[in-house]
């Protein structure tokens, strides 16, 4: 076991030197390049909603149309929205009403809220706001266009046969429920690696720790044994430094900047977790 202890010390010394270099390097103050959470939904009218999207309401056509609720109507055109964590159409929690309908099917719309059937966009906590106007503001998404404030027909937002008034919605989820909307809101498993990073290195963004032997959940735990230890450090050292296209580059270890280079920033990120055991939040 003596050789293992000596090896561990050598690795710590080397990684410590790398960390010191990273902390004094001119790029060390840069913010992470991981993506912040989506600031608004992505909405479109289609025949059916894709995985991860919600059906807000239905339309009889894409122009001069009647509408219906997503559950109460069989119209073929669906206003589908996605791209925000925990997005739903419940008129509860943090929500706003996109439109109100005169009925569940074959209905007119009201932007003034005068009808009883509501079509909402919501999140458990965060921000939800729907408004109406000639154009949608920054980060607001157009769900449809309406012919008036009440007793209105609806059209889509494709620029052909649209009405003058747009239905515009903004939704952002405070995913970690800390009272602020920040990049941590895009870390669904709260393991300190944004979902965008885990997508790049191909680990599970929904589990902080593996829940079965094949669940690769924690980026620095390269051999998936639940701990970041000497074995993981040796794997990292074998790939450091390297760039995409070189034989020793390992995409899995490009966990800081996702820039095709395993450099001191990635080493510092690894060092933060070495040595440690995986824990669920």
Explain what the structure shows:
The chain is of the alpha+beta class and 281 residues long. It folds into 2 domains: 11-35 and 182-277, no CATH class; 42-173, no CATH class. Helix content is 17%, strand content 25%. The chain has 4 helices and 15 strands. It has helices at 2-24, 195-201, 230-239, 264-272, and strands at 42-46, 54-59, 67-69, 77-82, 94-101, 109-110, 117-123, 126-133, 141-146, 154-155, 165-173, 227-228, 242-243, 261-262, 276-277. The strands form 5 sheets. The protein has a 4-stranded antiparallel sheet, with no helix packed on it. α1 packs across α3 and α1 crosses α4. The radius of gyration is 25 Å and the shape is elongated.
Top keywords for this entry?
281 residues; alpha+beta; four-stranded antiparallel β-sheet; elongated
List the helices and strands and how they pair.
Layout: H1 2-24, E1 42-46, E2 54-59, E3 67-69, E4 77-82, E5 94-101, E6 109-110, E7 117-123, E8 126-133, E9 141-146, E10 154-155, E11 165-173, H2 195-201, E12 227-228, H3 230-239, E13 242-243, E14 261-262, H4 264-272, E15 276-277
Antiparallel strand pairs: 1-4, 2-3, 2-4, 5-6, 5-7, 8-11, 9-10, 9-11, 12-15, 13-14
Helix pairs in contact: 1-3, 1-4
Short description:
By secondary structure, the chain is an alpha+beta fold. It contains four helices and 15 strands.
Strand segment count = 15
Q: Kindly, what is the distance between the CA atoms of the first and last residues, rounded to a whole number of angstroms?
A: 33 Å
| SSE arrangement, N to C | HEEEEEEEEEEEHEHEEHE
- Number of distinct helices: 4
Structural class: alpha+beta
Helical residue percent band: 10-25%
The main sheet orders its strands as 1-4-2-3
Averaged pLDDT: 85
Number of domains: 2
Beta-strand portion reads 15-25%
Radius of gyration: 25 Å
Silhouette:
elongated
Q: Largest sheet, described in full? A: 4 strands, antiparallel
Low-confidence stretches are 21-38
Oligomer state of the chains in this structure: single chain
């Amino acid at each position: 076991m003596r050789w293992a202890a000596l090896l561990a010390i050598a690795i710590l010394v080397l990684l410590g030197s790398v960390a010191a270099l990273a902390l004094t390097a001119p790029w060390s103050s840069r913010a992470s390049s991981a993506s912040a959470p989506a600031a608004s939904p992505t909405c479109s009218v289609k025949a059916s909603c894709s995985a991860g999207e919600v059906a807000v309401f239905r339309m009889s056509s894409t122009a001069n149309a009647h509408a219906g609720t997503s559950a109460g109507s069989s119209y073929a055109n669906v206003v589908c929205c996605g791209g925000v964590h925990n997005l739903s159409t419940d008129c509860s929690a943090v929500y706003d009403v996109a439109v109100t309908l005169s009925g569940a099917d074959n209905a007119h719309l009201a932007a003034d809220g005068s009808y009883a059937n509501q079509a909402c966009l919501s999140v458990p906590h965060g921000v939800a706001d729907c408004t109406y106007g000639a154009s949608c503001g920054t980060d607001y998404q157009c769900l449809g266009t309406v012919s008036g404030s009440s007793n209105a027909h609806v059209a889509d937002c494709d620029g052909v046969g649209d009405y003058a008034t747009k239905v515009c919605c903004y939704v952002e989820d405070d995913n970690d429920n800390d009272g602020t909307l920040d990049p941590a809101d895009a870390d669904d498993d709260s393991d300190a690696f944004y979902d965008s990073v885990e997508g790049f290195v191909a680990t599970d963004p929904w589990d902080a720790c593996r829940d079965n032997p094949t669940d690769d959940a924690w980026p620095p735990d390269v051999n998936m044994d639940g701990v970041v230890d000497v074995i993981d450090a040796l794997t990292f050292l074998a790939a450091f430094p390297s760039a995409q296209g070189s034989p020793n580059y390992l995409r899995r270890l490009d966990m800081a900047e996702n820039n095709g280079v395993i450099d001191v920033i990635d080493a510092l990120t690894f060092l933060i977790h070495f040595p440690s055991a995986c824990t669920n939040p």
